[in-house]
Amino acid sequence: MEKIIVYEKSTCTTCRKLNKILSEKGIKYDRIDYYDQPFSKKKLNSLLHKMKISAHEILRKNDQMYKSLDLKNKKYSEEEILDLLVLQPDLIQRPIVEIGDRAILARPPERINELFEN
Questions:
Q1: 114 or 22: which leads in pLDDT
Q2: Which of 11, 68, 81, 116 has the greatest number of CB atoms lying within 10 Å of its CB?
C-alpha cells in the first residue's frame, strides 16, 4: 500500500474522528499538523490538483477570517485564494488525506473509504 499522509489540525474534532477510523482499521499513516509544518504554495496547489477541486472549494466558509475578508462577496482569483490559504491556514478545510497521486478532503471523515475503493 502507498504511504498515507493526513494533513490536519491536532485540535480539530473531525481530524480526531478520522484518526480513530484509520486506527480502528489498522491502517498506518503519517500525520502532519499543517500549523506546525505549514503548506508551501506548491504543496497546497498539488493537493488541490489531486483532489480535483479549486482553492475556493476548500475554504472554511464559517471561519471568522473568511467573513472578515468578505471572501463570499469579493472576487479573488484562484492564485489570490491560494496565497491566502498559505498565509492563513485557518481558512483550509480539514483533514486532507493524500495517497500517492490521489487526495481527498475527508469531510465527513467516512469519505476516507473512497480512497480505498478501486
A1: 22
A2: 81
The predicted structure's pLDDT at residue 1: 66
The CATH number, out of the four listed (3.10.20.30, 3.10.120.10, 3.40.30.10, 1.20.1250.20), of the domain defined by the range 4-116? 3.40.30.10
The gap between the terminal CA atoms of the chain, to the nearest Å, is 13
Largest CA-CA distance found in the chain, in angstroms, rounded: 44
Contacts of range 25-32, beta carbons closer than 8 Å, 24 or more positions apart: 28/4, 29/3, 29/4, 29/5, 29/97, 30/3, 30/4, 30/5, 30/6, 31/5, 31/6, 32/5, 32/6, 32/7, 32/8
The pTM is what?
0.91
DSSP string spanning 43-109? Answer: HHHHHHHHHT--TGGGB-TTSHHHHHTTTTTS---HHHHHHHHHH-GGGB-S-EEEETTEEEE-SSG
C-alpha 87, offset from chain centre: 15
